Amino acid sequence: MIDTNTYLSRWPFRRLVGDETPDFVARLRKRNVAQAWAGSFDGILHKDIAGVNARLAADCRTYGKDFLVPFGSVNPTLPDWREDVRRCREEHKMPGIRLHPNYHGYQLADPVFAELLHLAAEQRLIVQLAVSMEDVRTQSVLARVPPVDLSALPEVVKNTPGARLVLLNWRPGVDEPEQLRSLATAGPIYFDIATVEGIEGIARLVEHLQPERILFGSNYPLFYFESALLKMRESGLSASRQQMLFEGNARRLLA
Amino acid sequence: MLNRRTLLTSFCAGGAMTLIDGEAAPPVAAEPARRFRIWDGHSHLEATPGDTPEQRMEVLIRCADRLGIERLILSQGYASDDHPTPDGLREENDRVLRAVRQFPERAYGSVYLSPSFPEFSLQEFDRCVRDGPMVGIGELQTDKRCNAPEMDAIVERAISMQAPILQHTWLNARGNGEGESTPYDLVELARRHPRANFICGHTGGDWERGIRIIRETKNISADMAGFDPTSGVVEMAVRELGPQRVVYGSDVGGRSFASQLAKVIGADIPDSAKELVLGGNLRRLLTPILRAKGLQA
Questions:
Q1: What is the pTM of this model?
Q2: Which sequence spans correspond to the domains of chain A?
Q3: pLDDT tens digits for B102-141?
Q4: Do B21 and A227 touch (CB under 8 A)?
């Protein structure tokens, strides 16, 4: 099982079970996770992104070699952000980067996002874009952050050959099946399951999306890991579909 | 404004019933839920495939089976109307009665009432609970907050049958809907009726505040249903309220059984506490009325 949506370090508003990296690794291994794609909570609010990514890479090496796969943070509103992309790729050997546009204060229609996506595509970096982190109804008064507006995304992706984009925690930002289809037909956009909801939610998602585009992701440790796992059970997918979502699609994307 | 229903239902409109792949589905990883007796205290027929209450109930039971959930407490929500008229309330209750009648070993009904129509609500309580098969009140989610004096007669009826009351509550950072109750409102009501048993629906959604609000009001339990599976909620609820005052519920079909069950299955609490949260507490709250009706917990 490959979990494509996990975070290391500290969530700013709450201590979480599993927010110490050795404990995080032990808990996921116990749940039969073979590999976890890990970003850093620090990348959401910290401005020293280079430091965040260096710590993330070191933690992955130290506590989870061949288990933790680091996805560095990039904030394209920071000066010299292209250097962060270079370090992720060349120094830390990361296969991808993780973006939080709503926390970093830019829109997907902004030219800098298109530039970032082009650069990532040239570097063969997977781009994970976190559409939301928390339900807007329960956010702190100090951090009322709506989901990323995805309306400009299909056009940007269409104009970026080679881009490989994964939407994390996307459900609050996509209200209608038509919007989902529009995203899926724009290019190679993948979708994790952490915030997919509703009865048999993943089985229904397969009605709207090619199953090859769906990735197992838990948003652990902010969410209980068992949420994603039990949603797979509830949806009653066939063995072959389960294998695709649990592992096959992620391995193909990473290859 | 986003509310529970608009946020959760847009992918879930009724339709195809054939959602499962042709191949037999094997077990997914471990089966952590099977060792507990699980009763779901908060379920609806909303946002579930199927054109009738019976069809929707079949879907719910199919999913409950996959997760080892023994019984559902089912209430309103088919029509997604927060401003129900007496006719609307009666229709909702009739749909629940139909759904439960089809699966009497797997579900109990809970009556939908409104303080906006107090006289009608008392008659409807008598029809569905005193003289009918239902075993509780709520989820109550109407256009009048639950601290309204019109709730008093409804609560007295509940006390007369020892029926628990599930009250919807939210603490929406963007502002509650008109008439939408908060945990503060429920505390006010519960203190007026210390002999009644209340369940604080969603624990206010903003559970770190909701748990603190209800902490000192011992006749209120915390419902774990219908908000994101944010890590730590069950641990905090058990720590602050004690394991006897925390109740698992899902809020299906807008939510999944799975994401809400995960809050308890994945929590760092002893198995003895999980047993209580997953069903023991709900069975304890329901035992008097079930016994009075000659039913087993």
A1: 0.93
A2: 2-254
A3: 999 999 999 999 999 999 999 999 999 999 999 999 999 9
A4: no
Question: pLDDT-derived band of residue B29, with 50, 70 and 90 as boundaries?
Answer: very low
B9 contact residues in A (CB cutoff 8 A): 198
Chain B hits for A137, CB-CB cut-off 8 Å, are 2, 170, 172-174, 205-206
Superfamily of the domain at B35-292: Metal-dependent hydrolases (3.20.20.140)
Of B23, B49, B256, the CB nearest to A231: B256
Say whether residue A237 is in contact with chain B using an 8 A CB cutoff. yes
d(CA A235, CA A243): 14
Beta-sheet pairing, A68-73 with A35-40: parallel
How far apart CA B246 and CA B274 sit, in angstroms, is 9
Q: Do A15 and B227 touch (CB under 8 A)?
A: no
Q: Using CB atoms and an 8 Å cut-off, which of residues 180-199 of chain A contact chain B?
A: 195, 197-199
Q: How far apart are CA A114 and CA A118, in angstroms?
A: 6
- Spatial CA neighbour of A32 closest among A71, A2, A59, A62: A2
Nearest CA in chain B to A225: B266
CATH node for A2-254: 3.20.20.140
Compute mean pLDDT per 10 residues along chain A, 255 residues long, and list them: 98 97 98 98 98 98 95 98 98 98 98 98 97 96 95 96 97 87 94 97 94 98 98 97 97 96
